[in-house]
Specification:
- It is a single chain.
- The chain has 193 residues and is mainly alpha-helical.
- The chain has a domain of 127 residues: Orthogonal Bundle (Cytochrome Bc1 Complex, Chain D, domain 2), CATH 1.10.760.
- Helix content is 42%, strand content 4%.
- The strands form two sheets. Strands 1-2 form a two-stranded antiparallel ribbon. Strands 3-4 form a two-stranded antiparallel sheet.
- The longest helix has 19 residues.
- The relative contact order is 0.11.
């Protein structure tokens, strides 16, 4: 009878979400931020980072670069030099992180999007009027059901994705006259749909 009651009490505690009974990480001694500690000479539990430690995304007093904002406005221009290498990097990262849901063309058509009946990802071509800083912030922090990718993509990688997205958007209805002469000739020979 007593064993049965003990088992019932343990089950009740587990059902209430009390993990301290089962999780040794919860029971172990640890220092909390700003708490006192007798272990260290200075009496503080929180430690100073070692010399030379650099945060993953430190503020460099350039909000346009690190946050996509200038004052209280989203930046309109991409604050890194645009090169072929930046676009290639942006394409690689877009294909890995964005195309899964938004589609390889950014049009919102992908196998994953087809399964998202509640709220499918939007076409990124319909949102061309958005400023570059907005796209950077969405890539950093997420939007709606989309997670942020600040942990996966560095600041320059996120700007490269924004640059590639701009190229994708431009490519969808760019006039033939903007194509280089060789490419224009090839395109003119292709059958029209």
């Amino acid at each position: 009878m007593i064993r049965g009651l003990s088992a019932l009490a343990l089950l009740g505690a587990a059902a209430c979400g009390d993990t301290t009974l089962f999780d040794p990480m919860e029971r172990q001694p640890k220092g909390r931020p700003f708490a006192a500690s007798a272990f260290f000479e200075d009496g503080r539990a929180m430690r100073t980072p070692p010399p030379g430690a650099v945060p993953r995304e430190r503020l460099v007093q350039n909000r346009a670069l690190t946050q996509g904002r200038s004052g209280d406005q989203d930046v309109t221009e991409i604050p890194i030099p645009l090169t072929r290498a930046v676009l290639a990097l942006g394409r690689r990262k877009f294909d890995i992180y964005c195309a899964t849901c938004h589609g390889i063309l950014g049009d919102g058509h992908s196998p994953v999007a087809e399964k998202m009946s509640l709220r499918p990802p939007p076409s990124l071509h319909e949102r061309r009027g958005m400023k570059a800083g907005h796209y950077f912030q969405v890539a950093s922090n997420g939007f709606g059901l989309m997670p942020g990718y600040a942990a996966e993509l560095t600041v320059p990688e996120r700007w490269a994705v924004v640059a590639y997205l701009r190229a994708l958007q431009m490519s969808q209805d760019a006039p033939l006259a903007l194509a280089p002469a060789q490419e224009r000739e090839k395109l003119e020979r292709e059958p029209r749909r």
